[in-house]
Amino acid sequence: MEIIQITLFIGLFLIISLAMFFRKIPALIALPVMAFLIPLIGGVSLQDTIQLVIGQGTLRLHTAYTVAFFGSMLSIFLQKTKVAENFIKIGAELAGDNPWSIAVLMLSLIALLFTTLGGLGAIIMVATIVLPIMSSIGIGQMTVIGIFLFGLSIGGILNAGNWALYINVMNLSVDEIKPFALMMFGMTFVVALIYITIQLYRDGHDLSLKKIIMKTVAIILIIGAGFLIYHSADDLFKQVFKSGLNFVGKGFKWIIGVVLSTLFIWNILRALWSKSAEERKIHWSAYLTPLIPLFLILLFRIDFIAAFITGLIYGYVATYRKGSLNLFIRSIFEGGAVVMPAIVLMFGIGMLLNAIIGPSGSWAVEHPEGWPVLNLLQPVMQSVIPHSPWAYVMIFGLAAPLALYRGPLNVWGMGYGLAAILLASGMNAGAIMGMLMAVGQVQGISDPTNTHNVWLANEMQQDVQKVLWNTIPYTWAVAILGLIVAAVWFM
Q: Where would a tag sit more exposed on the chain, N or C end, judged by fewer CB atoms within 10 A?
């Protein structure tokens, strides 16, 4: 019976995944269908499937789509007040006619921010600023999405918050994780530069390959020299350097707080003085509206939703004129309508998560025996454990696309279960970490079931499946390179 179940499960996963991959069936339909059939094949009753998978699954990502809802309100408000339009013009004027340099700068800034930030709220917050700037200098919509996703993933590699699994479950130390993470960072950054160059050429930009190569080498040398200087310095220098940064950071935090508070009060007074004005030029302080959530979250650790609401209120006051209240209300309604396709897709993603790894919360506590689908797949996972460097690279390299659609190598799907099985089998913890981090680039950048992929594609009016097609050659290459390095170091 188990063989039949496993065969049906693999067949269903491959058929529906390929149907989505080749755009024969929309993910909006495919994900709920897959979520409904998977637990039934795994032995879950029809009642539990409807209640625990379909019913509770729609709420699993409630935080993500609530944040997306408020983020979309702010985005629409910026468009309706023409703050976004003028912001784009200013960005285009400052950027000049050098799309490659601006694209690399945006990639680097996104990566830097996401070494500390995380979550859909932060992504929406940063994207509200970055996407219009890149679009304004003629970078194609698909290229803009790809650059953002690469920057997000590159930053995530060095985000210590993402190392919790390796530290807590695999008992690896930060010193064991850091060298491989830095290697993955470097390889992914270089592949991202190649991606930018090829995509800009496809977008019709006239590029000087010689200059690009020289700039790329210079960037790599500067980053490498920075890491080398810092890591070769003695402990006293590192301590003084960190203390200095901490002091500057605290000072910057209070300066920003005072400036924002002053501007908020000033804009309220301006609104009261000129409340009857129907049309007036946008005040320079209104251009800070997209930055308000960024400062509140990054410096003051304020909740994402609260930060977006504060940004909305600030923007309303800073752009106030006669009729602003009606425009504000329309922005709220239209913001919800614009993001609704992404939210509905998140319902399906939540269902699929519950179908594969089981419901969270009280159900997981009351059922220590585990979710039937995971229990069914564990023996299959154990049978493909590699025992040599060559097998390690071949098996996980060829299987890297199984990180898509919440598959067996997806850390947000069955990946945690696979990691536990590999660890229990005696496989080197470093090799498991290397596999998850390398293959994780396929998931983090290309997976259409990522909430950030869904939101970015919706925001840029692109098909999320086309994002997969556009990025998978590069992310698969990064995964194989990472696996080769991990095999040399750990196997």
A: N
Sketch the domain layout of the chain as residue ranges: 2-53+344-490, 63-340
Place of tokens 């504060």: 310
Quickly count: other Cβ atoms within 10 Å of residue 365's Cβ.
8
Q: Are residues 433 and 172 in contact, defined by beta-carbon separation less than 8 angstroms? A: yes
The predicted-structure confidence for 237-266, as pLDDT tens digits, reads as follows 777 777 887 888 788 888 988 998 999 999
pLDDT, position 468: 93
Closest C-alpha among 79, 88, 94, 205 to residue 135:
88
Over residues 304-327, mean pLDDT: 87
Distance, CA of 204 to CA of 199 (rounded, Å) = 9
Tell me the C-alpha to C-alpha distance, in Å, between residue 75 and each of 86, 345, 427: 14, 20, 47
**Which residue's entry shows tokens 């491989």?**
180
CA distance 248 to 378: 50
The whole-angstrom separation of Cα 105 and Cα 280 is: 34
* 0.90 exceeded by pTM: no
- Return the closest-CA partner of residue 298 out of 487, 139, 439, 117: 117
The pLDDT value given to residue 250: 83
- Give tens-digit pLDDT for 362-385: 777 778 778 888 788 777 766 777
Give the number of residues written for the chain. Answer: 491
SS3 at position 383: coil
State how far the alpha carbon of 217 is from the alpha carbons of 190, 225, 458, in Å: 10, 12, 35
Could you tell me which of 161, 134, 222, 152 has the C-alpha nearest to residue 188?
152
Report pLDDT digits (tens) over 174-203: 788 888 998 999 999 999 999 999 999 888
> Contact, 377 vs 417, CB < 8 A?
yes
- The three-state secondary structure class of 114 is coil
DSSP 307-355: HHHHHHHHHHHHT--TTHHHHHHHHHHHHHHHHHHHHHHHHHHHHHHHH
Span between the terminal Cα atoms of the chain, in Å: 36
How many of the other CB atoms lie within 10 Å of CB of 59? Answer: 12
Would you say 139 and 179 are in contact if contact means Cβ atoms under 8 Å apart? Answer: no
Tally of CB atoms within 10 A around 326: 9
CB 446 within 8 A of CB 145: no
- In this predicted structure, what is the pLDDT of residue 96? 59
Other beta carbons within 10 angstroms of residue 265's beta carbon come to 11
Q: Which amino acid is at 11?
A: G
